[in-house]
Amino acid sequence: MGDAYAMNIPLFAHHDGSEIYVSNSAPVIGDEVEFRFRVSQDKKLDRALIRIYHDGEARIFEMSAIHSDLVEVWWSVTVPVFNPITAYRFLLIKDGNYSWLNAAGIFQYEVTSTNDFKLIARPHFPQWVNHSVFYQIFPDRFATSGKKRKAPAKFIRREWDDLPKGKDPTTGVEFFGGDLLGVEEHLDHIVELGANGIYFTPFFPANSTHRYDASSFDHVDPLLGGDKAMFSLKRSTKKLEISVMGDLTTNHCGELHPWLVKAKKDKNSKERSFFYWDKRVQHGYVGWWGLASLPKFNFASDALKKRLYAGKNSIVRKWLRAPYSMAGWRIDVGNMTGRYLEDDFNAEVIHGIRKAMDETNPDAWLVAENADHFPADLDGLGWHGTMNYNGFMRPVWGWLNHDPQVHYGFFGQPTDIPRATGSQLVAAMTNFSAGIPWRNLVASMVLLDSHDTARFRNVVGKDRLRHIAGMALLMTYPGVPSIFAGDEIGVEGAWGEDARRTIPWSHHDRWDLDFFEQVKQLVRIRRSSDALAHGGFRFIYVSDDAIGFLRESKAESLLVVISRSPGQVEFSLLPFGYVIAQTLYGVAQTGSIISRRDAAASVSIYRLIRG
Question: Cα 346 from chain centroid?
């Protein structure tokens, strides 16, 4: 998002790669594409050029001013697409002064191509995710049908209304008995919320209740009701137009998986090549983070690649086809998959999984967990998107946390949650988005928390208004919103395992019903807005305690204003050519001047028209 305001430079030019700036976001090589940017009328340029790469060498094309009004001037150029990834930036010239506009902002000095805008000459990413709100379900904790099933002896049975203990040997084996029939029985809640997608954490058989240590990738865990329960659930979700995606561990499996069992038994087996072996390790093989329970895959093995994703009947392909027909995969620790010491098969595996999915179901969504972001992983040719921890969740935690009741501090770091200003929030978001194509940003999963983190309600110190502010950001920021089951009713959790609490279905007195109503309203806005589905993004107001940004598509323009604390919020829409046409959420307002004194954290969403 090339926006000078984020760099604390006077705002005057913008481009972000969305539909009002690029005529075709999914060209084929050889197509001609029109690129546009806008510049404030009071900063009228003498010349503008676009700098793009052709086979690794920069080429310059002259641009023309195509539209001018009292507010701004639009510049345009049409150029051919030469390569799968077209990196480009704009050169702005006025009175002999030169500035570069790239995805990180505007710079009055020479910059590298690291933060160039990027156009991807590949077919469109799954378009249905633009209109989706996902609901993350940890299967053991969402809902139980009450059916009694025989669990592994090591599992510790808990009553549904118990809290997870965590921080002791029972972590990972506390068994609450959630199952897929329980999910099916409560689909009405998901429909009432307004979500139209379910993201399940693993549903494969495993030796733990988190199921990231799969003992098979071939069937649904019998403890969840098995394949039969999944087929029943899928019939119901299809009728309700709810997409269902799964969670796959491409980095490792579990110690009870037949592949490892056979590899340990027969050193001449194909499966032996699936893993790393080390006599210095007590259990003889390399485990993820040294854990015997999570043997790490060795992608030097062609046989492993064939079984996991490349083969006709591979695991990746199988679950995308009927009768399972999953809508996509969330890939666990995608950033670590294929990486071990001097080995780095990560790019090969990413592209291999993407190829398998494109061939099997090109409309399936591929999103990877990437807790410590590698921009190269999101080059447009592999993962469609990431779980946006770095560019969304962490900055939002930093900005909105308020006397947080979080035991394990900042997600991924053994520290307290940092306190951030609005400018720091904007800088963090801009820094993340600048390194990846726009298509990968909008196809990434945005989230306030997950099964691996504290609950956002605890991050904001149980402050409902700050929680609403976070939900509003979640629903209006570019990407695919995901709500961790229970967040919508104020479920708490001070760290990852504590956050994996059950939903208190029989205790509605524990639900924050007022908050639930606000979340439903925000989800409706997200699902019904063209600007939030297809629009660009630009910050137009930033203070320590408040931010304002525009979402603009061909069909609609929205203004979102969010404050975290009491205080004055005042700015004008006149420099952007807009007036408020309708208040969608929050404090009703008309005209072009935003001026109010908030008594607490607040959210307003307005539909705009040209003034």
Answer: 20
* Contact present, 396 and 473 (Cβ < 8 Å): yes
Q: pTM of this prediction?
A: 0.96
Is 293 strand, coil or helix?
Answer: coil
Tell me the C-alpha distance between 590 and 606, whole Å. 9
Contact 212, 249 (CB under 8 A): yes
* Pairing relationship of beta strands 365-368 and 328-331 according to DSSP bridges: parallel
The widest CA-to-CA distance across the chain, in whole angstroms, is 78
Residue 203 phi/psi, 5-degree rounding, is: -115, 10
Burial class, 163, CB count within 10 angstroms (exposed 0-12 / middle 13-18 / buried 19+): middle
Q: pLDDT digits over 5-15, tens only?
A: 333 334 589 99
Residues 502-515 as b or e (16 or more Cβ within 10 Å = b): bbebeeeeebbeeb
Taking the C-alpha atoms of residue 296 and residue 361, their distance in angstroms, rounded to an integer, is 28
Crossing angle, helix 464-476 and helix 513-528, to 10 degrees?
10
Where is 244: in which H helix or E strand? Answer: strand 243-248
Average pLDDT over the chain, rounded to whole? 95
What six digits make up the tokens of 492?
């708490």
- Whole-angstrom Cα distance, residue 355 to residue 428? 32
Residue 516: Cβ-neighbour burial (10 angstroms; 0-12, 13-18, 19+): middle
Cis amide linkage into residue 323, ω under 30° from 0? yes
Pairing of strands 538-542, 557-563: unpaired
Give yes or no for residue 91 having a pLDDT over 90.
Answer: yes
Closest by Cα among 479, 497, 592 to 71: 592
pLDDT, position 372? 62
Rg, the chain, Cα only: 25
Q: What is the DSSP letter of 275?
A: B
Give the Cα separation of 254 and 606 in Å (integer). 49
The rounded distance, in Å, linking the Cα atoms of 496 and 61 is: 51
* CA pair distance 328, 134, nearest whole angstrom: 12
What single-letter DSSP state applies at residue 435? T
> Do the Cβ atoms of 392 and 479 come closer than 8 Å?
yes
**Residue pair 91/108 in contact by the 8 Å Cβ criterion:** no
Residue 10's pLDDT is 40
Contact present, 487 and 581 (Cβ < 8 Å): no
* Residue type, position 2, single letter: G
Distance between CA 254 and CA 275 in Å, rounded? 12
Model pLDDT for residues 370-409, shown as the tens digit of each residue? 866 677 788 889 999 999 999 999 999 999 999 999 987 7
- Residues forming beta bridges with residue 58, ordered by sequence position: 53
| Cα–Cα distance for residue pair 167/51, rounded to 1 Å | 54
